Amino acid sequence: MLRESGGAIKDKGGRLRRCFVDGDFELHVLSEPDGCMFGFQLLYRSGSESWFLSWTPVEEFLHFRVDVLEDGKRRFTQTDPGECLGDVLLERLRPAAALLEPRIRSFVLELLHHQPADVHRCRYCSARQPSRWSCPSCWLRACDGCMEAKALRKSRCTRAGTSHEWQLELAEVPR
Ligand SMILES: [Zn+2]
Ligand SMILES: [Zn+2]
């Protein structure tokens, strides 16, 4: 069961960061000075591996593999947010989150509920169409319409340093 660890910490932008831990999870939640929820970060284990999922309105979902180095520091390696099974994680987190304040619990669980579909939506159109195209370097996703209408094939990939290498995703896109 997640319980608060330490006190709230104010970051440079004035947001409050609070941390909740149990044997399985480490949950950080960020809220605005006016109390509105801003984002969350969740460290979780899957088998013998540790992973880190974050969501903010700016970057949306990011996912990292976490390796603990010999000196105890953590190394974060970014991976495809589509690799994170939000629905599986949700079932594990729901009972652990039972004692959290309702606004924190509903904010995190609601985002996790939508994660499998959200990470497969196009980042280029306001309709956020389900996407079939993704870049294997930066995991940006685009829908068929945007691939046709916009100059995405030549657009620059910030991680690869060249243009995106758009590939069709073969798996069924969650809706
Ligand atoms: Zn689109
Ligand atoms: Zn890319």
Describe this structure in words.
With 175 residues, this protein is of the alpha+beta class. It has helices at residues 86-96, 102-118, 144-149, and strands at residues 3-4, 9-10, 16-21, 25-31, 37-46, 49-56, 60-68, 74-79, 133-134, 141-142, 167-168. The protein is built from three helices and eleven strands, in the order E-E-E-E-E-E-E-E-H-H-E-E-H-E. Strands 1, 2, 3, 4, 5, 6, 7 and 8 form an eight-stranded antiparallel beta sheet that branches. A three-stranded antiparallel beta sheet has the order 10-9-11. Helix 1 runs antiparallel to helix 2. The model has no long low-confidence stretch (mean pLDDT 93). The structure holds zinc ion (2 copies). One zinc ion is lined by residues 122, 124-125, 129, 142-143, 145-146.
